[in-house]
Design goal:
The structure is a single chain. The protein has one domain. 45% of the residues lie in helices and 0% in strands. It contains three helices and no strands. Helix 1 packs across helix 2. It starts with a helix and ends in a 17-residue tail after the last helix.
Length: 76
Amino acid sequence: MIRSVREILKAILKGRLVFDELLSMVMAEAVNNLNSRPLIHNSNSPLDEQPLTANHLFHLRPIPGLSPGIFVMRQC
């Protein structure tokens, strides 16, 4: 799981230095990304229900997929 978080952070941040607020938002996006992965095998049949994810268990209902944020670096 640590490798997965590291890969997500590398993809989002692309080696940039960030401050606390942006790091908090990026970590929330990484957690949502990890918790949205199916816990069980997902078949290719369109008749199957939505696969069970950790977000279903945390929120007790399906959570729609959130679009990834666009992070812009500001000069401080």
